[in-house]
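quick q for whoever's on today - can somebody do inverse folding on this one?? i tried earlier but teh output was garbage lol. tokens:
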């Protein structure tokens, strides 16, 4: 009898395992406005490297490119309150950390696009593109595709326009980022997200790329400007979305992107979203301080203060790997952390505060204080371990000195396994605990 039960259990387990697809599409989820969020190095990603490094080496390599990301974010000073259709500047082996499955056109064509909260416009490489990856969107195969003329309102929302002073012409534009640049034509087509269809979605159809820093299958902008998903989808999502980012260590499981107010956490702590007309795409919050253990770190408040005139302050960003504070703020946090950990300190890649992992039990927790909300980071969001496991490092760093204002960035490693709610309509940001994997 026991043998029969064991045999039955084995076959049930086998059949269940065979039926479960860890890389199944987001359309299999019960809610039509939920999409899977996949780490670009995860095994469900088409960009999974054939010979992957350890996740620690991967994070170190990605974090080394954060300086370019911060320089880019700092450069987003608009001459007028409009959006900028610029890529995040990540390449396949760069810091395009999280991707979502998006379908473009009629019939729809699948693209794995980088999710970016600090950009507005969406754009994809189109067939015939020079310098693009092998996977491109084919406009000729879509019955709903159209190019937009220079005379349309959306054309005024892009930078780097190449439109004639008089006459009619397609809305063409050129953009650059880091060591790369691209040219595109503003176009319109249906955008399918899980089971939702957003008709007449304006995006950049890329026709040439120079350099290797452009996300290979495009970018989905979730910023705050008029070309963003929240603006173009109108009442469909009511200006609300949230994501839960899976851990870098999670190869198979994915997080989720929830679009619209349905299914969002009911009980969630929030802090006001601040609007900066000089950087209208970015999600600013008011960071009032940081505690290391029970010690509230003393810093010059002007280095944290939101200033719409200069663009300084603190933002939440999906494209930066590790949280970056301006130099004096980071140094004060780091020094207090070192004081409480004690013992010898070494460095590892971008991380300058590493210690023997056996001392991890005395490592203090870090708490980020926002207006109306405190976020005590789990230890896995504060520390990163070496490949051998012998070292633990504080997973934060100082911002580069070459940025033109004091910009602090709460990055995605510190956001992992948290539900981050962006309620643009009500100008609030919420954070709740959630196991994203």
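ok took a stab at it. sequence:
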């Amino acid at each position: 009898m026991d043998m029969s039960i064991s045999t039955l259990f084995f076959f049930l387990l086998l059949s269940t395992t065979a039926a479960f697809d860890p890389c199944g599409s987001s359309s299999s989820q019960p809610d039509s406005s939920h999409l899977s969020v996949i780490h670009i190095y995860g095994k469900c990603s088409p960009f999974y490297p054939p010979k992957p490094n350890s996740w620690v080496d991967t994070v170190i390599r990605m974090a080394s490119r954060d300086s370019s990301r911060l320089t880019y974010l700092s450069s987003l000073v608009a001459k007028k309150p409009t959006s900028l259709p610029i890529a995040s500047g990540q390449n396949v082996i760069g810091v395009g950390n999280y991707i979502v499955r998006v379908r473009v056109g009629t019939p729809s064509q699948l693209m794995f696009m980088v999710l970016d909260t600090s950009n507005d416009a969406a754009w994809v490489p189109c067939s015939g593109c020079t310098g693009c990856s092998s996977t491109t969107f084919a406009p000729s195969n879509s019955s709903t595709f159209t190019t937009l003329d220079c005379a349309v309102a959306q054309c005024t929302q892009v930078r780097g326009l190449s439109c004639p002073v008089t006459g009619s012409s397609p809305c063409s534009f050129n953009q650059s980022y880091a060591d790369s640049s691209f040219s595109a034509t503003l176009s319109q087509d249906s955008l399918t997200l899980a089971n939702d269809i957003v008709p007449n979605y304006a995006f950049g159809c890329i026709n040439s790329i120079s350099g290797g820093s452009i996300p290979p299958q495009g970018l989905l902008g979730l910023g705050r400007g008029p070309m963003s998903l929240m603006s173009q989808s109108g009442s469909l999502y009511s200006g609300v979305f949230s994501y839960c980012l899976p851990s870098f260590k999670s190869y198979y499981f994915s997080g989720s992107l929830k679009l619209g107010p349905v299914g969002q956490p009911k009980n969630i702590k929030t802090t006001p979203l601040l609007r900066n007309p000089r950087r209208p795409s970015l999600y600013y919050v008011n960071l009032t301080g940081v505690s290391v253990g029970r010690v509230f770190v003393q810093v010059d408040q002007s280095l944290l203060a939101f200033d719409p005139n200069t663009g300084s302050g603190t933002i939440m960003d999906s494209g930066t790997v590790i949280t970056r504070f301006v130099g004096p703020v980071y140094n004060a946090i780091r020094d207090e952390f070192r004081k409480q950990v004690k013992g010898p300190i070494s460095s590892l890649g971008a991380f300058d505060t590493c210690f023997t992992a056996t001392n991890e039990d005395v490592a203090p927790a870090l708490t980020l204080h926002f207006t109306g909300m405190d976020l005590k980071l789990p230890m896995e969001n504060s520390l990163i371990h070496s490949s051998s496991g012998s070292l633990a490092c504080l997973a934060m760093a100082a911002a580069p000195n070459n940025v033109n204002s004091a910009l602090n960035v709460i990055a995605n490693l510190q956001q992992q396994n948290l539900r981050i709610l962006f309620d643009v309509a009500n100008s609030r940001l919420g954070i709740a605990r959630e196991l994203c994997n």
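fwiw The mean pLDDT is 82. also The CA atoms of residues 186 and 204 lie 5 Å apart. so keep that in mind when u check it
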